[in-house]
Amino acid sequence: AQTVTQSQPEMSVQEAETVTLSCTYDTSESDYYLFWYKQPPSRQMILVIRQEAYKQQNATENRFSVNFQKAAKSFSLKISDSQLGDAAMYFCALQGGSEKLVFGKGTKLTVNP
Amino acid sequence: DARVTQTPRHKVTEMGQEVTMRCQPILGHNTVFWYRQTMMQGLELLAYFRNRAPLDDSGMPKDRFSAEMPDATLATLKIQPSEPRDSAVYFCASDGQGPWNEQFFGPGTRLTVL
After folding, report:
1. Is the pLDDT of residue B76 over 90?
2. How far apart are CA A14 and CA B105, in angstroms?
3. Is the peptide bond before A113 cis (omega within 30 degrees of 0)?
4. For residue B46, how many other CB atoms are within 10 A of its CB?
């Protein structure tokens, strides 16, 4: 079975500061994808960033970057220069062996002005 | 711009009633997913289809839930009879280019069963 664990139910950060959200996973697949989704109060699920397991280079999307440690099965999300609009639930997800996404329980991020 | 649409956005019903949720995937997308989100269980996959054929519905309670794709532009999720424990947000998502690509999520249907 594939699992995704987000150990931080809640995190907070000051506007313009940097925050890192943690995610660990388990899978027996050799080829898989990892994702971070953002869910603001509107409930809309928005893809933030994606990482292919076979790529060693960490993915980046503007202020969002990941630290992918394949051997440790760790996939953390770093948000730089945090903005008020970054406040949301963040979900880590794993896709391997099929198209199904397995989600973590989420981390609620608060951005303080 | 292309997006997944879901109707209704909100539904309040009484226990025992039938509930039907609808999803229109992005045109050209051939894989459709149904997820359920609750506070206790988080986001769980209920079922998914490719080219309108069900591939996996192992996450769905079979006795009361059913999922279909009458045509390529419509996916439905039915609950009959509904129970209070079915209260959740139900998301539809689609992707169109084979395995391991981005899933585009609809806005969800918030279901409340009294």
Report:
1. yes
2. 29
3. no
4. 19
Question: Which of B35, B42, B91 is facing A105, going by the closest CB pair?
Answer: B42
> pLDDT per residue over B23-50, tens digit each?
999 998 989 999 999 998 899 999 999 8
Omega cis (within 30) before B8: yes
The rounded distance, in Å, linking the Cα atoms of B35 and B60 is 10
**Is the CB of A105 inside 8 Å of chain B's CB atoms?**
yes
Phi first, then psi: give them for residue A8, nearest 5 degrees: -110, 100
pLDDT tens digits along A72-106: 999 999 999 999 999 999 999 999 888 889 999 99
CA distance B68 to chain A (A): 18
Could you give the CA distance from residue A98 to residue A109 in angstroms, rounded to a whole number? 30
Q: Which of A33, A91, A106 sits opposite B100 (nearest CB)?
A: A33
**CA B65 to the chain's CA centroid:** 10
